[in-house]
């Protein structure tokens, strides 16, 4: 997050910058800048993210949506992950959000919002909590709990032993939100995971690895 601290300018310019910098633009007189910087630091904002400017005609960069901004999240999760996210949502709603609201109200009573850095930080924190609540609420509406069946084929939730390049390795295939290659958990959307899906013990599949075609044989399916 980049924060702009701007020495007073006409209100038309303030409004323009406030809109274009996603509410991370604050206004201080010269005597208030040092306390503002201290408030930002106490609020966890890194020093290299804060910029002081007194040019009212500056161009404020507008962040463009990233490549994966509108990509839908993989809905396949384990029951354990579902419970974890549900507990997080409950904690956000019953603990973090109420506390954040109280803090915003308390700081709002201090007066002039334009020179109240702590208020702006608290409001941003509340906005982040609300965003997370909305994301989790929407995501949990569409999740698909992974429940593998005994079909004899590799599927979501399968634990499979494979032989590749003369070595045996064990992988668990889950949704992309729970992958952890260091513990052998891979996504069903990864090259290896996708190639294994639907295979049986004794089958051999091919994947592209470091620019080479590699054969992978399914040794055991748990």
List key phrases describing it.
5 helices; 222 residues; five-stranded mixed beta sheet; three-stranded parallel beta sheet; Chitinase A, domain 3; 3 domains; Helix Hairpins; alpha/beta
Walk me through the structure.
This protein has helices at residues 11-20, 33-42, 79-108, 117-141, 191-196; strands at residues 3-6, 25-27, 50-53, 76-77, 144-145, 159-164, 167-174, 185-187, 204-209, 212-221. It has 3 domains: 1-56; 72-145, Helix Hairpins; 159-221, Chitinase A, domain 3 (Roll). The strands form 3 sheets. It has a 5-stranded mixed beta sheet with strand order 8-7-6-10-9. The protein starts with a strand and ends with a strand. It contains 5 helices and 10 strands; from the N terminus they run E-H-E-H-E-E-H-H-E-E-E-E-H-E-E. By secondary structure, it is α/β, with parallel strands linked by helices. The model is unreliable at 1-31 and 47-63 (pLDDT under 50).
Distance between the termini: 45 Å
How many β-strands, per DSSP?
10
CATH level-4 homologous superfamily of the largest domain: Transcription elongation factor, GreA/GreB, N-terminal domain
Architecture (CATH level 2) name of the largest domain: Orthogonal Bundle
What is the chains' assembly state?
Answer: single chain
Strand order of the largest sheet: 8-7-6-10-9
CATH hierarchy class name of the largest domain: Mainly Alpha
Q: What is the residue-mean pLDDT, rounded to a whole number?
A: 78
% residues in beta strands? 15-25%
CATH topology type of the largest domain: Helix Hairpins
Task: Based on Cα principal axes, name the global outline.
Answer: elongated
How would a crystallographer describe the biggest sheet? 5 strands, mixed
Structural class category: alpha/beta
Radius of gyration: 25 Å
Helix segment tally? 5
Question: What are the segments in which pLDDT stays under 50 over at least 5 consecutive residues?
Answer: 1-31, 47-63
